[in-house]
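Example 4.3 (complexes with small molecules)
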Amino acid sequence: LLEAKDGIFTITAQQGTSEIFKGINTETYGYNGSYLGPVIKINEGQKVTFKTNNQLSEPTTFHWHGVDIPGEGDGGPHHLLQPGDTKNVKFTVKQGASTLWFHPHPVGATAEQVYKGLAGLIYVEDEHSKKLGLPSEYGVNDFPLVFQDRKFDDNKQLNFKAAMNEDGTIGDTLLINGTVNPKLTVGKEKVRLRLLNGSNARNYTFKLNTGDSFQQIATDGGFLNKPISMNELSLTPGERAEIIIDFSKYNKSTDISLMNEEDIKLMPFNIVDKKSETSSDSLKNLNNYVVTDEERKLPVSKKLELFGMGKMVTINNKQFDMNRIDFTQKQGETEIWEIYNKPDMMGGMTHPFHIHGTQFKILSIDGKEPPTNEYGWKDTVAIDAGETVRLAVKFNNKGIYMFHCHILEHEENGMMGQVKVE
Ligand code: C2O
Ligand code: CU
Ligand code: CU
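Answer. The structure with CU-O-CU linkage bound is encoded below.
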């Protein structure tokens, strides 16, 4: 956890080795370490400087996924740092409490660099969130959980190419926060889990082995208005959610685990008889997110069509071109983006659609209201084959921003475009 009163954070991309399997080292990348990165804690209203430093032997960028940041600091493909380069990114935090993340974005190497371990979390805190009485003791009753599937070769070396499938890398080994077979020790209290699907291409559907429900309290970009009771929760690559599990009703001998679909065990919980100081009882109103009537009445002004699988993936029949601006939009103006995921002869597939530099609102999915747990700020939305999703999109800053499928190998294969905000 990186906190800085003066708002100055040093973030170094570096290469090293990690002992993911006991006694065996494999080459990995990390921020300020050998795998993954620190959690950077920033506050609404704070003036922040990220001192970024590329200590890799290849170019990289530092992209702040979900952060409301001027285009020049966004860290998209245009902002390459050569080996040894440094860059200071300055901005004022203009968004509320949320769990965001950061990762590289160089054309042609994003997927592989993330795969090797370049990813970290950003926690935004605000005054309001401190009064909500949510579990908030880092590592005690408030845990980040980064889910990534990886493939290791016979010598237990992390291997990108071996994991490559038609639609991206799929691993047979699950890492949570860079750890194989982790367990989480929790007290008999409400515990907050901040989930990031940090996989390149795999989806997760989280549930409990007991079938019990849990509460979702936040989407990608902030709190839901109130906790939503869920039995299962799906996240596509890039998406986050915060959930609360109430362990007070269980005890030491309860067999309780976080599961994935098809009843795959992700992580068992180990319950101990203690409570932390910020232990909370009731969860009340968390936010006042609203989709306004004006937003609902706005006409569609941008249409996007996602199409394809494997290497042939396009947006509006085009593949990414660094030198082409696909759309323009005025700073501070809300526009309705309509995104259609066009099926192919095989039926098609879900694409997690992400826009840089903004948090948007989902207005509708196939003309209907989004599910209640998506009635909140989002920066990545799962669009199934055949679906049409309408988003209300506003950029608070100027600059050039990417929009793309967050299956990183699709992004790499050109399923990306650029919007210039002026
Ligand atoms: Cu997670 Cu282009 O972003
Ligand atoms: Cu992003
Ligand atoms: Cu895709």
